[in-house]
Design a protein that fits this description.
With 95 residues, this protein is mostly beta strands. It is built from no helices and two strands. A two-stranded antiparallel ribbon has the order 1-2.
Length: 95
Amino acid sequence: MRKRGKVTCSCGLCKDKKVETEYSPVKKIVKTTTNNRTIRRVHPTHIENIEKNIIRVENYYPVTESNVSETIVEEYNCGSDLDNPCCELIKRYKK
């Protein structure tokens, strides 16, 4: 940006001279003020100590095995014809 104008001289050296005045663009200076603020955030922790008592209960189920042999006797009356028997149960018992 230029601004032109006449300047009057009081010393007498510049009488009747045309003087031009030029202006440079404005120099911008930024002054920053910083205000510091501290915020304390407290995050409390609680520790709970636990004592555990473990009781172990053991259950046993022993199994035994045995072998039993049974004999069942069945008696029949089959008559006198060996080729054509007609058998009838007479008695049945365990031995």
